[in-house]
Amino acid sequence: MEIEKKFLVSKLPEDLDQWKASAIEQGYLCTDPVVRIRKMDDQYILTYKSKQGIQKAAGVCINQEVELALTRESYHHLLGKIDGVLIEKTRYAMRYPSGNQIYKIELDVFHGHYEGMVLAEVEFPSKEEADQFVPPDWFSENVSDDCHYSNAFLAANSNEPSHPSGSKETE
Question: Which entry of 28, 92, 114, 149 is annotated as an active-site residue?
Answer without folding.
Answer: 28
